[in-house]
Amino acid sequence: MSEIATLITDPAAWAALVTLVVLEVVLGIDNLIFISILSNKLPVHQQQKARRIGIGLALVMRLAFLSMIAFIVSLTTPVFDLGLVGPLDEHGAPAFETAFSWRDLILIAGGLFLVWKATKEVHHTMDPEPSGAALDKKGPASLGFGAAIAQIVALDMVFSIDSILTAVGMTEHVPIMMTAVIITVAVMLVAADPLAKFINANPTVVMLALGFLLMIGAVLIADGFGVHVPKGYIYAAMAFSAGVETLNILARRSRARKEAAGERH
């Protein structure tokens, strides 16, 4: 309790909390997009329930990982080394790592899953009718509630570990991390339904969101191999693409209003 009282009166702790909340909200966008796209494939009466469960599990997982923070930090310790000499960058250092930790393996597995899932969803979006192809054996409406929750949990784990390791790099105080996680998940809960409805109402946004997931999956794989892409570049690209798509949506609505006005006259 004395530590918490000290943190409450410490301006540096409040600055760390605000910074961490903003960072965690930005990092949580990836998770929220995935949950929204996956829940939209369920029957309407199950969609909100799936989003609530998915985000609730994300909170439980993050808090559980924070309670095992020493174990989570240990995941960055290499567990094996391939001993290969890869290509060198312009500074003469290896272009990618050949020593892998559990965190690296989790990020690579999560990235591969995200790329596979996004590719499959792109295929269903472009060709919604079952075609018998390898990626389309069951059709777009085959996802069950249990399967959706299982996939959400799998990605929750990947994003949670990445989120906690980011928090550890920002502050050493666990109460600040826990507070930031709770605030972030509360924001996700508020934003989940409007985001899912917006994605569902705008088909082009679905494709854009799937493109984001493909990019995020590729970044996770690269990060697992030690190629660290600055997150600022990723989110700047996402913000620019979202801005362009917003202009397209406004232009389409403006044309629709003009056409409706012309039909009335």
Tell me what the structure shows:
The chain is mostly helical and 265 residues long. It has one domain. Helix content is 76%, strand content 3%. It contains nine helices and two strands. A two-stranded antiparallel ribbon has the order 1-2. The protein is globular and about 70 Å long.
What distance separates the N and C termini? 71 Å
Low-confidence stretches: 131-141
Inertia-based shape: globular
Mean pLDDT: 77
DSSP strand content: under 5%
Write the element-wise H/E pattern from the N-terminal end onward: HHHHEEHHHHH
Query: What characterizes the major β-sheet?
Result: 2 strands, antiparallel
Instruction: Compute the number of helices.
Output: 9
Provide the number of structural domains: 1
Number of E strands: 2
Provide the structure class.
mainly alpha
Give a summary of the structure in a few sentences.
The protein is built from nine helices and two strands; from the N terminus they run ααααββααααα. It is mainly alpha-helical and 265 residues long.
Highlighted features:
two-stranded antiparallel sheet, 265 residues, mainly alpha, globular, 9 helices
What is the fold's blueprint, element by element?
Elements: H1 2-8, H2 11-39, H3 44-67, H4 69-74, E1 78-81, E2 99-101, H5 102-126, H6 145-170, H7 174-201, H8 203-224, H9 231-264
